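Action item from last meeting closed. Structure (386 res):
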């Protein structure tokens, strides 16, 4: 798993361009005797393992794509592709799922039911999961459960964590286009500046964010981009603001969108501007299934003992397109600790901790075996040191 992880890390590929990663995965799993389908939704891979006794169907998912970030780790296996890096741990996700497949293949005669391994492209652009689902990656019959792991620097290396219910937020990308009347910077009274409208919009919209220990259902509205004008002495005609809306459920999401529309109308009327609000749904919120959370606690408890897993005390306002599978199948997202020394996610200094691979693969295999109907014999897996 370490060799595979580092090879993928050194050759990161953008969403829907993961040919090399997919080929590595397919070769290993085919050699282990799994039924492997390639080129699913372009670069996706789906592998099936059927046990010797009938049972349920469990699915495991990993994402394969890299981020448009320049790596700064200086590691010997650092990205060879400038401007692309595995800064979110997808190299580790792939390696752990391959490892889980090898574990399950080795215990095929003890496995009840079927396990499907889904290697998905393009999570970072929010399109991979839906494309895989549309291509039939979940298979027939639909799985009874689906599990996924995600790197988490806030947990010690190899420690796993999850929670029932709210796990991650939904993510909508939005654009506010403000149109006024341009003019000379010396005569602002003859113009209607969209920049003044944007200043009011940004201040008021940012005030919709609610975070903290005393907030039952957190919500976030963040501005990430503003564009307007080209010269210091020219008042432009148009200004564009882009941002993200994060919500724990559809009700809060709809409320935030309604609030932004209301603020946009007020600013437009108050400053005699035109304001257009557009949204693009990136992904829904991840809602962990309580029954599958019990499978997680039982499996992690058997494998790692009481110090090897935690119940996380709050949801993350980050997003994960794993949520799209949960529109069709009960699911559970689990965090795998990579430790603070791995760096923070989505930065050029992040590197997945190899010491977490063994725990992650064992947990995936154990949860799949249990969900498909047979716990198997996975016991006492000690996390490796990084």
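Sequence:
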């Amino acid at each position: 798993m370490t060799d595979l992880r580092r090879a993928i890390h050194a050759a990161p590929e953008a969403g829907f361009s993961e040919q090399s990663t997919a080929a590595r995965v397919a070769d290993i799993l085919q050699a282990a005797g799994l039924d492997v389908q390639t080129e699913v939704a372009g670069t996706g891979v789906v592998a099936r393992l059927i046990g010797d006794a009938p049972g349920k169907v469990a699915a495991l998912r990993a994402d394969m794509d890299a981020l448009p970030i320049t790596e700064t780790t200086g590691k010997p296996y650092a990205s060879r592709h400038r401007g692309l890096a595995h800064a979110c741990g997808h190299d580790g996700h792939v390696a752990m799922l391959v490892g889980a497949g090898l574990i399950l293949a080795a215990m095929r005669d003890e496995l009840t039911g079927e396990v499907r391994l889904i290697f998905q492209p393009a999570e970072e652009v929010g399109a991979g999961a839906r494309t895989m689902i549309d291509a039939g990656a979940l298979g027939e019959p639909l799985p009874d459960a689906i599990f996924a792991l995600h790197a988490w620097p806030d947990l010690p290396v190899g420690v796993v964590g999850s929670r029932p219910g709210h796990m991650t937020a939904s993510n909508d990308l939005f654009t506010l286009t403000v149109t006024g009347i341009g003019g000379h910077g010396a005569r602002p009274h003859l113009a209607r500046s969209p920049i003044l409208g944007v200043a009011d919009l940004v201040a008021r919209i940012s005030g919709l964010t609610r975070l903290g220990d005393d907030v039952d259902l957190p919500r976030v509205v963040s501005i990430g981009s503003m564009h307007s004008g080209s010269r210091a002495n020219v008042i432009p005609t148009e200004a564009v603001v882009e941002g993200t809306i994060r919500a724990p459920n559809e009700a809060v999401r709809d409320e935030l969108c309604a609030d932004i529309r209301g603020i946009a109308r007020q600013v437009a009327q108050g400053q005699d501007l035109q304001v257009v609000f557009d949204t693009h749904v990136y992904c829904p919120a991840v809602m962990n299934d309580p029954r599958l959370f019990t499978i997680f606690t039982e499996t992690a408890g058997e494998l790692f003992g009481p110090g090897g897993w935690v119940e996380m005390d709050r949801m993350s306002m980050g997003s994960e397109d794993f949520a799209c599978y949960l529109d069709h199948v009960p699911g559970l997202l689990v965090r795998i600790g990579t430790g603070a020394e791995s760096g923070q996610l989505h930065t050029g200094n992040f590197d997945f901790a190899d010491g977490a691979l063994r725990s992650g693969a064992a947990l995936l295999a154990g949860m799949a075996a249990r969900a498909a109907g047979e716990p198997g014999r996975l016991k006492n897996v000690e996390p490796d040191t990084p």
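Note appended to the action item: Confidence is low (pLDDT under 50) at residues 375-381.
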